[in-house]
Amino acid sequence: MAAALTIENIRRVPKVLLHDHLDGGLRAGTVVELADAVGYADLPTRDPEELAGWFLGAAHSGSLVRYLETFGHTVAVMQTRESLVRVAREAAEDLAADGVVYAEIRFAPELHTERGMDLDTVVQAVLEGFALGPSSITVRCLLTAMRHAARSQEIAELAVRYRDDGVVGFDIAGAEKGFPPTRHLDAFDYVRQQNAHVTIHAGEAFGLPSIWEALQFCGADRLGHGVRIVDDISFTDGVPQLGRLAAWVRDQRVPLEMCPTSNVHTGAAPSLAEHPIGLLRDLRFRVTVNTDNRLMSGCSMSSEMAALVDTFGWGWEDLRWLTINAMKSAFVHFDRRLRIIDEIVKPGYEAVMSSA
């Protein structure tokens, strides 16, 4: 007899996280302490509980642009080597405490150089922090370039340079509309020529053209969010009909890094009940569940899974399927992926599925 699908039991099972932003997952108390340490005086409040509520309220605006504005505060306190080490270590600790056994955490090195650090120092500090985390979690990182900036080639070269030290891929992020991924083709070409991995924020605030360009021009291995792929699915007498792009994404098993709570907050989905993850799971797309920004959206992997259970009536089999999807889609080497699936994920789910 399976254990009850409570958030406490969900926290017990092993989870895999592919889409989590370092500057979106700080502890509110850490933001306050780091702000005091560096003399940053622009926080809306210095009470950690109130600050957490402010971030959640500001993020829940229905606008991706407004959502992204909240990062001004977290990035401002992540401008020293010591702060980056601390934030990275705490991220690993918090995820491990939530039962995450493998995580790929992304950040944009170019955003952390305002106080004189160079890009290499930024990456080295974050990797050091991850290494100080608990042994129960494997943490790797993705280096993100900003869509509106012109440093993507530098960041791509940085990702390749640290590929043997914990960096497993390259990403671009930021406002989609007006900043297509094709502006950064040189960087994507370089990464692929170096046999490295690419994930791209696409299909969150902009539609099918963003997804198409990310896949067919930029060679993305995974889609960050990919929510708008649902726009290429129609219904005839209640039967779903996949358009050519949606069919290609499913046929090629392109992983979708979906972040349900965040997608509602940014307006990418009208509500959790109307989030396309339910339909896409039923149609057997390569769906994964992620947090995106734990501070801004007030969420964890366990709360995301619990919300999906409540909304769609999913069971342990569904959660296991999603977790294995994520581990299969990770950018770490195949032998590590297989070992985590066979030795950690499957036994972990078997334990809760066979105990009252």
From TrEMBL:
Pfam families, A to Z: A_deaminase (PF00962)
Keyword Zinc: yes
Segments forming domain Adenosine deaminase: 14-346
Keyword presence, Chloroplast: no
Keywords from the named record: Hydrolase, Metal-binding, Nucleotide metabolism, Zinc
Active site, per annotation: 204
Cofactor note: Binds 1 zinc ion per subunit.
Annotated site location: Important for catalytic activity: 225
Superkingdom to which the source organism belongs: Bacteria
Annotated Zn(2+) binding sites: 19, 21, 201, 292
EC top class named in words: hydrolase
Catalyzed chemical reaction(s): 2'-deoxyadenosine + H2O + H(+) = 2'-deoxyinosine + NH4(+); adenosine + H2O + H(+) = inosine + NH4(+)
Co-factor requirement: Zn(2+)
EC number: 3.5.4.4
Amino-acid positions noted as binding substrate in the UniProt annotation, renumbered to this chain: 21, 23, 174
Family: Belongs to the metallo-dependent hydrolases superfamily. Adenosine and AMP deaminases family. Adenosine deaminase subfamily.
Record's function text: Catalyzes the hydrolytic deamination of adenosine and 2-deoxyadenosine.
NCBIfam families: aden_deam (TIGR01430), PRK09358.1-2 (NF006847)
Name of protein: Adenosine deaminase
